[in-house]
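To: structure subgroup
Subject: Chain for Friday's discussion

All,

I'm putting the inputs and outputs inline so they're searchable in the archive.
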Amino acid sequence: MGPGKTTTRTRRRAVPWVLLGLWVGLLVFVSPFASKLSDVQHDRAVDYLPASADSTQVAKIEEQLPGGETTELVLVYHRDGGLTTADRTTARQQVDEIAGANQLTATPKGVPSEDGTTLMYPVASNEPGTEELRDEFVGHVREIAQGDRGLSVDVGGPGALATDAGAVYDSLDGPLLYTTIGVVAILLIIIYRSPLLWLVPLAVGGVANYLSMGVAYGLHSAFGTPISGQSTGIMTILVFGAGTDYALLLIARYREELRRVERPYDAMRAALRGCGPAVLASSGTVAAGLLCLLAADLNSSRGMGPMGTVGVLCALVAMLTLLPALLVLFGRRVFWPLVPAFGSRPKERRSLFAAMGSSAGRRPLAVLAGGVVLLGALAMGMLNLPGAVKQEDSFVDKPDAVVAMETLAAAYPEHSTQPIDVITPSGRADATLATLRDHQGVASVERGRSGDGWTEISVVAKGAPESAAETTTIKSLRSELEGSYVGGPSAEQLDLKDTNSSDMKIVVPLVLASVLLILVALLRSLVAPLLLVAAVVAVWGAALGIGGMVFGPVFGFEGTDPGLGLLSFVFLVALGVDYGIFLMHRMREESLAGAEPVTAALTALRTTGGVIASAGLVLAATFGVLLNMGLVQLVELGFVIAVGVLLDTFLVRTYLVTSASVALRRKVWWPGKLSREPGPSAGPGAGPGAGPTERTGPPRDPEPVAAP
C-alpha cells in the first residue's frame, strides 16, 4: 500500500471524529441558550392575536396603563335549589378576604341572577403584571373561593381562562417531548429490528432538538421572535418527525450502498450523493412553506414560521453530518443482526410495494380516476366542519373557568357576563361614554383606568358571549367609535376568525409558489412538480373532510379552531411534498440511468416505498401525539396532519403519483431533456444526485426497505 493511499485512508478515518468533535463543541456553546428557552416562552393574548387588529391594540395599551394588564375574574356561586342566606354570607366573606389580600381595581359587587340560583362577583386586579404572578393571583383566589354542602364555587373570567390555557401549554414541554421520543423509539425498533440501530437516529434527533432550542432563543434575543407553547411544541414535533424521515432515507440508502461498496466511509459518501439532493430539497420545501407564514397577520401563525423552520433545519444539519459520522464510526455492526455484508444481495421476498406498483402499472388511468374520486368524496366532509370554536369549548376536559362560564350563561341569559374592553383617547372619554350608554346593544358601561392619553371603559353587551347579537354589537361599536379600539375576549375570537380567513388568501399562494419553484429546480420539469403539488392539495382537502366527519360526531367538539385550515395546509403541503420528492427523485435517477419510464416508476416505488411508508408512519405518529393534549385546537391540528400524512403515504404516493407517472411516461418530465430523449446508459453516475461511478462489488440491485 502506497503512502498516498495510507494518507487518504487516515484522513477518511479522521473525518467522522472531527464532525463528532465539532458537534460536541456546538452543544457546549448553545447549552446556556437552550436552557433559557422556557424563560422567554409566553402565552399572552398579544402573542396569538392578529398584529393589526383592534383587540391587539387594546391588549398592548392595557399593558401600559397604570398597574399594567388587568386580570379579570368572575367568582360564581351557585346552588341548584336557590342560594340561601348562609350562601350569600359565605360569598361576601370570601370576596372580602380576597379584596383584603389583593389590590383590586374596584370593590367587587355581587350580581344575583333572576332565578336566585346564582350570584356572581366580578373581580379585577392590576397587581399581577406578569403571567407568573397572574397565575399565582388566580390560584390564590381559587384557594379562598371554596364551596360546601351543595354550594358550588367556580372562578372564571378571562384571567382564569388564560391561566387554565397556560397550564395546558406548560404541560407540552415535558409530556409532549417524552411521548414523541417514546413513539419514535417504538417505531424505529419495529422498522429496523436491531437492538442498536434505532438508538442512533433517536439520539441524533435529541441533539437536534436541543440545538433548535438554543437557536430559537437566539432568534428571540436578536429579532424578538415570539416564543409560545404552541410554537415550541410544533418545533419539537418537526425536529423528531422530519428529522427521523431524513434519517430513514439516508440509512436505507447507506445500507444499499454497503452491499456494493467495501468501506463504510465510501458507502456513506455514495449514500449522501444519492439521497442528499432529495433530503435538501425536502427540507427546503418545508422551510420555504413555513417561512411563508411570516406573511400572515396572525401573531401565532407568524411566530410559528421561524420556529418550525429552525426545527427542520436543525434536524437537517444533524441528520446530514452527525448521523453519518456516527454510522461510519459504528461500521456495519450497527445493523446487527441484519448486517449488509459487502458483495451480498438482499433476500428475495414478496414486496408489497412491488405488488402495488404492478396494479398501478396495469391500469394506471383506472387507478388514478378511482383515487381522485375517493379523495374528492372525502373532501366533501369539509361541509360538515363545525363553526369556529368558542372559548368555553376550546378545552378537551373542562377546567374550572369553563364550568364557571357555562353556569353564568345558563343563569344570566338576559345579558353578557363577559365584558367588552374599549380603549378611547382620554380627551374623548366623555363622548365615548355617552355613545356607549345610548347604544342599543349595550347593557351597562363602567369607566376604568386612564394613563398615557388613553382611557379604559368596560362594556357589558346585551347579547350572550360570542353570540350573533354580541358580535353585531362589537362590529357596530368599532364603526361608530372613531379613534377608539374595541377588544376583550369575544372581540379577540372575532379577530382571530377574520384574520385567519384573510391570511389564507395571502399565505396559501405563497406556499404553493415557493414549493413549486423548489420542485421545478430539483426535478427539472414542470409537469412532475405540478402533479406533486396537486396531490398534496387533494390530500389536504381529504384530511379536512375526514376531520369534518369525526370532530363533532366522534370527538364531540363544538367547533373548529379558526387557524386549522391555514396551519394544516402549510404543514401538509410542505411535509407531504417530502415523500413526493423521495419518490420522484429516485424515478428521475433511474431514468437518467437508462430505465424506461414505466420501469423507472415501478423501480422507484419498489426501492423507496418501504422508507416512505416508514417515514410516513413516524411523521403521522409524532403529530398524533397532539391528540393527547388538552386543547381542541391542538387535537384538531394533530388529527388532520396525521390523517393527511397517512393518506399521502399509502394512497397518493403509492398509487396516484405512480399511476400518473406511468400514464404520462416521459411527458411527466416535460419540458426537460428526459421528456424528449432516452436517458444515457452510462449507469447511475450519469446524472446529478446519483452515486459515484467508481464502484466495486456486484451490479446495482435495488433493495426494498423493510417497512413495519
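Points worth raising on Friday:
Residues 81 and 668 are 73 Å apart (CA to CA).
Confidence is low (pLDDT under 50) at residues 679-708.

D.
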